[in-house]
Amino acid sequence: MIILDGKKTSSDIKDEITQEVLQLKKDGRKTPHLAAIIVGNDGASRTYVGAKVKACNRVGFHSTLVELSSDTSEKELLSKIEELNNNNEIDGFIVQLPLPKHIDEQKILMAVDPNKDVDGFHPTNVGKMALNLPTFISATPYGILELLDRYHVETSGKHVVVIGRSHIVGSPMSILLSQKRKVGNATVTITHSRTQNLTEITLKADIIIAALGIPEFLTASMVKDNVTIIDVGITRVEDSSKKNGYRLLGDVAFDEVSKKASFITPVPGGVGPMTIAMLLKNTLLASKMNN
Ligand code: NAD
Description:
globular; Rossmann fold
């Protein structure tokens, strides 16, 4: 069994980006600049955004964090987005989700200039992705493709089962892996909360992408031998033995499933760290494209 080490792979990618940034600077070109908008005080969101800013510093990007209070109106947020759309210093930016309930998330994501949409959430970019045209692929699916690629996990002709159909993970993952691309050409089954007899389907999978958000949902009896497992789930579960009071669990019962798997991602340290590395990769692409 081989662990798909997202922590190490994301660190390698960050080193590669650092080298590229040094070269850009040497050539007198613009230093990539990522901005992030966060609205409100959600603890997990703050941690994620903080990690993104830290990652920018590590690779030599400029970064700007725009912090808005939880009572910010939709109109105010839209005008901030317009400001970033028009600011030539900023190559790409993200709006950290979730947003407070009084703000229409879709309206906000539609307002981001597609050329600066490094999260790849704008319908223009989702459409390009679905048509297999060059674009910003959203960070989580992009990170999974990269992990499979760097560990030479064969996807061509394999049966991939995706569990979950969210817009940010399950749906794009199923589209990408079915496409004619280096990591792709798979026969994909997408499953969700209304799927019947899920175990019958997962037992036939060569590769399973678990993205449903139910801790340790996928057990050993649901998978065949030599399966490849990508565990996207991250759930905080109370744990008084930990300093911070919680531990992170994936959607896969790692201890038992790993015994049957040929490749598996751990949680934490699998898909999670890859997400930030791919956001940086998208920002580098935006910077090259926009300058
Ligand atoms: P979501 O809640 O938007 O979607 C969950 C999906 O799971 C739905 O499509 C639903 O139909 C499906 N589902 C629910 N119960 C099911 C069941 N019993 N059987 C089959 N399908 C079922 O979730 P999301 O935003 O895609 O996130 C999923 C998990 O991945 C969460 O734990 C989230 O925290 C995590 N996540 C991790 C990263 C990362 O970077 N590692 C990124 C995004 C999401």
